[in-house]
Specification:
Length: 858
């Protein structure tokens, strides 16, 4: 494949990342366009009047149904956890996590399912593995979809003419379909009563609940969807909907459309679907019902959850938590960042919506007595800027970033000030100050100081921000649709000129989004491979004292270092994508390795990165598994026992033949000192360039050395000469106490000799044996030794397949066969990293780092 073709293929893959965000944004735009046509005859005063007309009884009923819905949601997790991971999390904690997690994720994205991603962060802190968390989520999916199937079946039996799509099929056919749906679900429950059941999807298995658990979840699903729909149903005008079952189905469809949009909470898409499906255009009382529903079902549970988190935090700080309360605190702690992110996002929403609606004339008149008009105008623009900035920064709060907490707190306070100075909007100022106070209460949760980007903004989040701004602009045009727009409006400055202020504020909002988008598009969030960065003076003595020859890679100049407090050891690492990747275990005396490894783990966490240890020996695995990381076998390392090594004997016939043939061809082996290496650098460079050209490859990095004068000047060099000219070389790594010796770069001129590699290795091993070294490290054979059995992990089976079938890409088996000539001892080595979805990202980050190509943030 040509370079151009590869670039085009990479570009095509890159665009796929933007498709979901673009589609979601398109749905949002379409929804607001449709919504505008459905309410274009209404006014804000009509909607306000309809909100005030909602009866107290309807509000109480809506509150009751909201409580019932969230209580049913909590049962999803209780049954799922008891089925998938019994005893790992107590029932009260599972119920609390289910309800509180839904309150947060409902506000973030109005998901059809109760926050799968949030569950992952919560339950993993309780020791539940990712696969089991996926099964918990999958079990909840069963409950929800079976509940919808029951509702559809009952609707077809009771009122077939009221169900869309099925109206023309005829009552008999409709009733038959409804009975079949109900019978299938009932049959599934009966099947579960026959004992333990497991669903299989390819190689993925999902333990199913018992028939009693399934009934509980099915009932919970029906109650959840039904109660959520009933919350809105009781708020709707009495003459709008005849059948509650039909309404519940329309409600479910609206939720799905809301999830597909980019807007947080499905804002706009949900409302447009409800109004369009029920044919309720131009109804102020319907719009009022939807607004009140948002307040009761979306905002109120979020506030209750935040208040609960504050209470738990206050008790935790007193240090009196024990037993279940301590478990609850640990389970709820991961909810703090997304909860505060929703609050900050809501603060930005308040400012944007306020800037898009008319100010109160009496307050503006009073304010103008103390504040000049230019200051009021600037405050209005500044408030809109703060609103958009809060939307952007809230992403960093969800990632626990310290700088996001500081900036969000400052923006909230500034927003409160601007709310007063732009129109004496004390209600908004109070809300913003309250949110700022809540941030102070949770300040301990924001400790990460990420080096990537300011606030970890990505395209999906930017799409959500854009959708929110679109919603505020739509609200503004709705509020001022009676105004005749003209170019002169941009320069109309007056107390009564609310529409021009809205237009100018909208421009500010979109300009901020444009700048943030530009930053996301053009800035790389990953360090490039650093060629010859400065190596700290404390590195060389530690390398010299290490018996591990791989420590010499610290002198390559492409790594950063985390030192132990006494400067006796270090971790060498680099950043790639969203990962901090350490090369091997910490280098240093055994007594500092444990604390250094944990210090690196904490460093990655503090910088919101994934901690990765690349090429770890099996002896160190317990240390890393205690960190909650997982180990993937990379292959095997070949080490030759030099105390018994010889080229004599029948098994070493090939090596013996190679050394003798090399001598006949005039190849002379020698080891030249560091000083001679410096003097011969140009000659070595010519050999290296010829080797690279022959291989049609490029220099790698991180775990492999590359040709660099400063790096190679640290080492002696094994060379083969012919007619006095160097035709092959390998730089020598020497371990302390003559425990181990190895080589890094091994390069030679093409077409000199077919035995040049065998001869160089054999001669060097004999030389090392004479020097008194115990082991010769031949390096790794990638993917060697992976298990390909039915019960093995997916990584082992995939790696084993690639080892056997990947010869067209890389000679895995050929590399091992070459090293096997020297009768080595094979030892496995591992990649240690976070599990679950992060593992795939880590593999990409490591590959990118070693290949030397920078990669976008993930």
């Amino acid at each position: 494949m040509t370079t151009e073709a590869k670039a085009e293929r990479h570009s095509a893959r890159a665009w796929r990342r933007y498709v979901p965000a673009a589609l979601g944004l398109a749905i949002t735009v379409a929804a607001f366009a449709a919504l505008g046509s459905m309410v274009h005859t209404l006014t804000l005063d009509q909607v306000r009047g309809a909100v005030n007309a909602v009866s107290g009884l309807d509000l109480i009923l809506a509150l009751v149904f909201t409580v019932i819905s969230f209580a049913a949601v909590s049962l999803y997790d209780v049954v799922a956890v008891e089925t998938i991971a019994p005893g790992r999390v107590s029932k009260p904690v599972a119920a609390t996590v289910g309800a509180a997690g839904y309150a947060i994720s409902n506000a973030l994205g109005f998901p059809l399912l109760t926050g799968g991603a949030l569950r992952y962060h919560v339950y993993k802190s309780g020791g539940i593995e990712l696969a089991d968390i996926g099964r918990i989520v999958g079990t909840s999916w069963f409950a929800l979809w079976f509940a919808l199937a029951i509702m559809l079946g009952v609707a077809l039996i009771v009122d077939p003419q009221g169900v869309p799509v099925f109206r023309d099929a005829g009552p008999v056919v409709d009733a038959a379909i409804g009975i079949i749906l109900v019978a299938l679900v009932a049959g599934f429950v009966v099947w579960l009563s026959g004992g333990e059941r497991t669903a299989r999807f390819g190689k993925f298995t999902l333990p199913l609940p018992s028939h009693k658990g399934a009934i509980v979840q099915l009932v919970a699903g029906i109650i959840d969807v039904g109660a959520a729909a009933a919350t809105l149903y009781v708020l709707m005008p009495a003459d709008t909907v005849d059948s509650f079952i039909l309404f519940a189905l329309v409600f479910s469809v609206a939720v799905v459309v809301g999830v597909a949009s980019s807007a947080p909470g499905g804002l706009g898409a949900f409302e447009a679907t409800i109004i369009a499906s029920l044919g309720l255009s131009q109804r102020a009382d319907v719009v009022a019902a939807l607004l009140v529903y948002r307040l009761i079902y979306t905002l109120l549970p979020l506030l209750v959850t935040v208040a609960g988190l504050l209470v738990v935090e206050a008790v935790r700080r007193r240090g009196v938590m024990k037993g279940p309360m301590k478990e609850l605190s640990r389970a709820l702690e991961p909810m703090v960042p997304p909860a505060t992110a929703v609050l900050a996002f809501g603060g930005g929403l308040v400012l944007l919506f306020s800037g898009a609606t008319p100010g109160q004339a009496t307050r503006l008149d009073l304010l103008s007595d103390f504040v000049p008009l230019p200051f009021i105008e600037m405050s209005h623009l500044a408030a809109s800027f703060v609103g958009v900035a809060l939307l952007v920064v809230s992403r960093g709060l969800a990632k626990r970033l310290w700088r996001a907490w500081v900036v969000a707190f400052g923006l909230l306070v500034a927003g409160a000030v601007f709310s007063i100075s732009k129109g004496l909007d004390w209600e908004e100022a109070f809300v913003l100050v309250l949110v700022a106070g809540l941030l102070i209460g949770f300040r301990h949760a924001f400790y990460r100081r990420s080096m990537r980007g300011l606030f970890a903004v990505n395209w999906s989040w930017l799409a959500a921000v854009s959708a929110t701004v679109i919603a505020s602009v739509w609200l503004g045009f709705f509020a001022y649709r009676h105004v005749e727009y003209a170019n002169t409006m941009w320069w109309d400055f007056a107390l009564s000129a609310d529409a021009p202020r809205f237009l100018r504020a909208s421009v500010v909002a979109f300009v901020v989004i444009a700048f943030v988008g530009l930053d996301v598009a053009i800035h790389r969030r990953t360090d490039r491979i650093q060629r010859r960065s400065r190596i700290p003076d404390d590195v060389s003595p530690i390398v010299d004292a290490s018996p591990n020859t791989n420590a010499a890679l610290a002198l390559l100049g492409d790594k950063r270092f985390l030192f132990s407090p006494d400067k006796r050891g270090f971790v060498m690492y680099a950043r790639s994508g969203g990962s901090l990747i350490a090369l091997g275990e910490p280098i240093g005396p055994p007594e500092v390795v444990h604390d250094l490894a944990w210090a690196f783990r904490d460093l990655a966490d503090a910088q919101a990165e994934r901690p990765v240890f690349y090429e770890v020996s099996p002896e160190s695995l317990p240390l890393f598994l205690d960190m909650g990381l997982v180990a993937l076998k990379l292959g095997e390392v070949a080490r030759v026992d030099l105390t018994t090594f010889s080229v004599e004997g029948a098994k070493k016939q090939d090596l013996r033949t190679a050394t003798r043939r090399a001598e006949r061809e005039g190849l002379v082996f020698s080891v030249i000192s560091r000083e001679e290496v410096v003097a011969s650098m140009d000659e070595l460079r010519a050999v290296s360039d010829a080797w690279l050209e022959m291989k049609s490859g490029t220099e790698k990095g991180f775990s492999l050395g590359y040709f660099d004068r400063a790096y190679l000047s640290h080492f002696d060099m094994a060379v083969l000469k012919k007619d006095g000219a160097i035709v092959a070389f390998a730089n020598i790594w020497r371990g302390a106490n003559k425990e181990e010796i190895s080589i890094d770069l091994m390069r030679f001129l093409p077409n000199v000799s077919k035995v040049i590699m065998d001869a160089l290795f054999a001669k060097l091993m004999l030389y090392a044996k004479d020097e008194g070294y115990k082991w010769f490290n031949l390096g790794a054979a990638p993917l060697s030794g992976l298990v390909d059995r039915r019960g093995a992990s997916r990584w082992n089976r995939f790696g084993s397949f690639l080892y056997r079938r990947g010869g067209s890409f890389y000679r895995f088996d050929g590399l091992k066969s070459f090293k096997q000539k020297f009768a080595p001892v094979w030892t496995p080595h591992y990649l240690v990293c976070p599990g679950g979805f992060d593992t795939a990202k880590v593999l990409v980050d490591v590959t990118t780092l070693i290949s030397g190509r920078p990669k976008q943030d993930s």
